[in-house]
Write a structure and sequence with these properties.
21 strands; globular; 30% helix; 3 domains; binds calcium ion; single chain; Immunoglobulin-like; alpha/beta; TIM Barrel; Oligo-1,6-glucosidase, domain 2
Length: 506
């Protein structure tokens, strides 16, 4: 399938490219950058939500699934974007958020209007709340004054969870998917898919030893699998080439993989790389081996160190060091798996840092700040909030050095941006020439040097401060990077913080 060796590029629309100077990235901004993206070499774009939304959670609170938020443009502009992208052989997948709707969605407004509403059962209502906590903090239940019942929201109170036990909800969702397939969309990224169903006994969640709630009854409920299977089968019936990727809010690989097995999502996001808090080579090796096991079972991993939900790898993993940064680029692009780049990554964009509470846009960071302020100073609360602030990777892309800030500040432009862009282009080109990469073998970690083999390429990533000598089993030539082969070809020396890619001649 087209996606198995593809390079995806995630676009977080408000921060990507602003075409009309109102400080908010938009559809036309993306369209104006299509030739740039083609030159980078990407195969597909993943668009984060562009739907009309009150933006309590940056667009993941949708109030109309079949329209474009006027802030970003119009449906006609989006259709032109899809058309132009297809002209350049770039595919487009879109984010779909079916765990919940905005409380401003007509479905919820109707459901909340009366207990007798025909859509009442499309959401989850109870006379009294249980102890379930929202993933954004606080109770997951909010009281509705008009009908005197509580509705359930696993995230913000403005994001009411849909009741997936209700057949009409499933039907309505299929109609939304049909709408986008008819407009030519090539695939879907399903948001928080493991939150779809809750336990219908509504038992209280247990509390762990650390005093925090264990989400036992509100996520990963077994009832969901059959529904997801139906959903995916229906999509593939419409068009077998449509790509589906699930977001599972977990870093438990066997749990994640259970969704790509029974439920037949083509793949799921493997956050294990992306959520790594700092460079941890033992862990990187372990994950690579787990990905190898997955590949043996015909499951294809997703490879990414960046997304709109986490601090950028430039700061978090590479510690502002170009030499280290390039090693992550090689890992993501010259490897078995689907590569997902996040906007600006190919230019080494750095984290945007909020300087005050007023600068914060992320609801999670705002909540954290308010919580911390109860026990510490404003400065300390800001520091704590910035530790979880999803704004860090959502700064406006600095296309040039004299750009004005927009709805959010600018992610600092990397002084080595041009250099990094060239590197990404070269690696993507190499991926296309040497791929498809179907296998991964010979994964080794020696001191700070990770090596592996994919097809007939041998990749050595030396994260350490010392030069390494690496024995080679077969005769190879240098394809990329800075290694020195011994005259007999049995050994390669790789300098500190450098990579080498050798090619075995078959
Ligand atoms: Ca704009
Ligand atoms: Ca749910």
């Amino acid at each position: 399938m087209w996606w198995e060796n593809a390079v995806f590029y995630e676009i977080y629309i408000p921060s990507f490219a602003d075409s009309d100077g109102d400080g908010i990235g938009d559809i036309e901004g993306i369209r104006s950058r299509l030739s740039y993206l083609k030159a980078v070499g990407i195969d597909a774009i993943w668009l984060t939500p562009f739907y009309p939304s009150p933006k309590v959670d940056n667009g993941y609170d949708v109030s109309d699934y079949c329209a474009v938020d006027p802030q970003y443009g119009s449906l006609e502009q989006l259709m032109r974007l899809i058309e132009d992208a297809h002209q350049l052989e770039i595919k487009i997948i879109i984010d779909v958020v079916f765990n919940h709707t905005s409380t401003n969605h007509p479905w919820f407004i109707e459901a909340a209007s009366s207990k007798e509403s025909l859509k009442r059962d499309w959401y989850i209502w109870r006379d009294s709340p249980n102890n379930w906590e929202s993933f954004f903090g606080g109770s997951a239940w909010s009281f509705d004054e008009i009908t005197k019942q509580y509705y359930y929201h696993s995230f913000a109170k403005e994001q009411a969870d849909l009741n997936w036990q209700n057949k009409e909800v499933k039907q309505a969702v299929l109609q939304v998917i049909q709408f986008w397939l008819e407009l030519g969309v090539d695939g879907f990224r399903f948001d928080v898919i493991n939150n779809l169903t809750v336990n219908d006994q509504f038992s209280d969640n247990p509390i762990g030893e650390d005093g925090r709630q264990i989400h036992r009854y509100d996520v990963n409920q077994s009832g969901i699998m059959e529904t997801l299977k139906e959903l995916n089968e229906w999509i593939k019936e419409q068009n077998p080439e449509v790509f589906t990727v699930a977001e599972i809010s977990s870093d438990n690989l066997s749990l994640i993989n259970s969704y790509t097995d029974e439920a037949h999502f083509d793949t799921a996001f493997h956050f294990n790389l992306g959520s790594m808090k700092h460079l941890d080579l033992q862990n990187l090796q372990k994950l690579t081996k787990e990905f190898q096991e997955m590949s043996k079972q015909n499951k294809i991993p997703t490879l990414f160190f960046n997304s709109h939900d986490m601090s950028r790898s430039w700061n978090r993993l590479a510690n502002n060091d170009y030499s280290l940064y390039q090693l992550f680029a090689v890992f993501v692009l010259i490897n078995r798996g689907i590569s997902f780049l996040f906007q600006g990554e190919e230019q080494g964009a750095a984290d945007y840092e909020a300087q005050s509470f007023e600068d914060i846009r992320d609801i999670q960071a705002k909540n954290k700040y308010r919580e911390m302020l109860l026990s510490m100073s404003e400065e300390q609360a800001l520091l704590e909030a910035n530790q979880v602030n999803r704004d860090r990777s959502r700064g406006m892309i600095a296309w040039n050095n004299d750009q004005d800030a927009g709805w959010i500040g600018i992610g600092p432009r990397n002084p080595e941006a041009d250099h990094i862009l060239t590197l990404y282009k070269q690696l993507i080109q190499l991926r296309k020439e040497e791929g498809p990469f179907q296998t991964i073998n010979m994964i080794k970690l020696q001191e700070a040097c990770l090596s592996y083999q994919t097809e007939n390429l041998h990749i050595i990533l030396n994260f350490g401060k010392r030069k390494v000598q690496h024995p080679l089993q077969v005769k190879m030539s240098t394809l990329f990077g800075r290694g020195t082969l011994s005259t007999d070809g049995n050994l390669v020396q790789v300098p500190p913080k450098a990579c080498w890619i050798g090619k075995e001649h078959l």
